[in-house]
Specification:
This protein is an alpha/beta fold and 126 residues long. The chain has helices at 13-25, 36-45, 62-71, 91-98, 110-120, and strands at residues 5-9, 29-33, 50-54, 80-84, 102-105. The model has no long low-confidence stretch (mean pLDDT 91).
């Protein structure tokens, strides 16, 4: 299994720690960004295989960050998974229309989380 580079954009320290711990446990390299501006800086510094993007962020909301990722030719092809505590009916479809490949709602279901990560990194482990 190849180690993948994953960017987590999450402003809640507890959620960040949980996601970070899970991804490191799965054997991935993880980079953190606590807001949209930091996320865009990290994206300029190195290439990521996947981005986990919280939709409720300080300074710049998730949809604006997503729009900038998708407009930039060097990041447009990176799969973005929306992470949201507000999984209201219809919001998931909206994030996907905006360019996310999928979504994870909080609190995180670790089995679904693992399956999604493996799916978008092209790996499958039972």
């Amino acid at each position: 299994m190849m180690m993948k580079e994953i960017l987590i954009v999450e402003d809640n320290p507890l959620n960040m720690e949980l996601i970070l711990d899970l991804l490191e446990f799965y054997g991935h390299n993880v980079t953190e960004a606590e807001d949209g501006i930091k996320a865009l800086e990290r994206l300029a510094e190195k290439k990521f295989d996947i981005i986990l993007l919280d939709m409720q962020l300080p300074k710049m909301d998730g949809l604006e960050v997503l729009e900038r990722i998708k407009k930039n030719p060097s990041t447009a092809d990176i799969p973005v998974i929306a992470v949201t505590a507000h999984a209201m009916k219809g919001s998931e479809e909206h994030f996907i229309e905006m360019g996310c490949v999928d979504y994870i709602s909080k609190p995180i279901d670790i089995h679904r989380f693992r399956a999604l990560i493996d799916k978008y990194l092209g790996e499958y482990s039972p």
